[in-house]
Write a structure and sequence with these properties.
By secondary structure, this protein is α+β, with helices and mostly antiparallel strands. The chain folds into two domains: 42-256, no CATH class; 273-432, no CATH class. It is built from twelve helices and nine strands. The strands form two sheets. It has a seven-stranded antiparallel β-sheet with strand order 6-5-4-3-2-1-9, with helices on both faces. A two-stranded antiparallel ribbon has the order 7-8. It is globular, with a radius of gyration of 23 Å. 44% of the residues are buried.
């Protein structure tokens, strides 16, 4: 087989399909180089500050470095969520009596186990997707974040994460020990998952009317009977004596925080997929053009197809296509919703993409606040331009695709006005034709 034919075949296989699932080896080669590339995220920056003495983490006898870490990295304590299924690194420390606590911001997730050896962190990195770290809970050692690769990517790099290094949120049926009953099935959760399938193996505090979920449920037998009887787990506002609350920063596992986290992780996985996929497509195209002695700027249809495919998938998610709608008011028990909304930014009318609805859907204006994120701005130019161009057409009504029928004219106008007022890096054409 000649070199030219071989390159054409590789490009057709690698770029011409609509869905691609990466393998870990794909990440380790150019242009991603997941393990060898230098991270640039909230944890890597905090480590540099620790190393130079600009920042110090204080140790608490009860929770170790947790509280100090959250403060320095601007992760709100109110975001606390509690999971009691044994589905993570320190599984032997997790049970309904000793749940694992999770905290998050837009760009960092922190996992804490009472009495655990380490804090677990996953940072959102604009070029590497999700980067995993641990921090030893040892007062006698200078705190230092250790990057983790192979062990974490075993679970965090699969079809469950859009085929890239990302986050997995699962709903499982849990035994009293915390072991998941895998024979009963599990659900991968994002914003499209019906509430009735969410939060198995998680504590949930908050009210939600007649809507049901699988949170706060402990299954006493190996056989999970359907429909599941979880009346006692609904509309729980106080977790009472289910676990030793003094071992945690709060007693909440806020329903609104859970819903935001599920939206956010799904969006971040798609952002990483768009980044990785297009970078690899452009890299392969460059190599092919050199092989065939074509201009470096020559664009292959298969590359355009890849850009459009991942860009469209990302845009649909950012605009909450197929979001699981609510059937009544949802209210959390912690300050999370109020603190999250205050982060803005806001337009002159006081509107923000962080404003909640919580009666019919999650947000009042159905466009993700992650459009402001560094990960979005760091997307390869062709896919970022494609997303913003199509977004403009959707918001102005020029794009009449049924994919966006869920957006009424009022929604489109409000989102368009908010973005023009609050995202300065939009193309100039957005402001030229308001």
């Amino acid at each position: 087989m000649s070199g030219t034919i071989r390159w054409v075949l590789l490009l057709t296989i690698g770029l011409g399909t609509s869905v691609r699932v990466f393998g870990v080896d794909d990440f380790e080669r150019e242009p991603i180089r997941y393990s060898s590339a230098t991270p640039d995220n909230v944890v890597s920056r905090l480590q540099r500050q620790l190393s130079t003495g600009q920042v110090e983490l204080s140790y608490d006898k009860k929770t170790g470095y947790l509280r100090s870490l959250l403060k320095e990295s601007k992760v709100p304590v109110s975001s606390q969520m509690l999971v009691y299924s044994k589905t993570s690194l320190q599984r032997n420390r997790i049970s309904p009596r000793t749940p694992r606590a999770l905290y998050f911001s837009d760009d960092l997730y922190v996992g804490y186990c009472a009495g655990g050896d380490v804090l677990e962190l996953s940072a959102v990195d604009p070029q590497l997707g999700t980067v995993f770290y641990t921090l030893e809970q040892d007062a006698d050692k200078k705190p230092r974040f250790e990057r983790r690769t192979d062990r974490c990517t075993l679970c965090h790099s699969s079809s469950q994460t859009q085929g890239v290094v990302g986050h997995v949120v699962r709903s499982v049926f849990s035994e009293p020990s915390g072991n998941p009953i895998l024979s009963a099935g599990t659900y991968r959760v994002d914003q499209t998952t019906a509430l009735e399938k969410r939060w198995g193996g998680w504590y949930v505090t908050g009210t939600h009317g007649k809507q049901t979920h699988l949170g706060n449920l402990i299954v006493r037998t190996r056989n999970v009977e359907q429909p599941v009887d979880n009346k006692a787990g609904q509309n729980v506002t106080d977790l009472g004596n289910r676990f030793e609350r003094s071992a945690y920063l709060t007693g909440h596992s806020d329903i609104v925080a859970l819903m935001v986290m599920e939206h956010q992780t799904g969006a971040q996985n798609l952002l990483t997929r768009a980044n990785f996929d297009v970078r690899q497509a452009l890299h392969s195209e460059q190599s092919l053009n050199m092989e065939m002695k074509l201009p470096a700027s020559h664009r292959w249809k298969s590359t355009d197809s890849r850009i459009q495919s991942v860009g469209d998938d990302l845009l649909k998610y950012l605009l909450f296509r197929e979001e699981a709608l609510l059937e009544g008011k949802v209210r959390g028990t912690s300050p999370f919703a109020a603190e999250f909304s205050k982060l803005g930014p806001r337009d002159k009318q006081g509107r923000s993409l962080r404003d909640f609805d919580l009666e019919k859907r999650l947000f009042r204006y159905p466009c993700s606040y992650l459009i402001y994120s560094k990960s979005f701005d760091a997307l390869p130019t062709p896919v970022r331009d494609h997303v913003l161009d199509r977004l403009w057409k959707v918001l102005t009504g020029a794009d009449k695709s049924k994919d966006f029928d869920h957006l009424c004219a009022t929604d489109r106008k409000a989102i368009r006005e908010i973005l023009i007022a609050t995202k300065p890096t939009l193309p100039a054409s957005w402001r030229a034709t308001k």
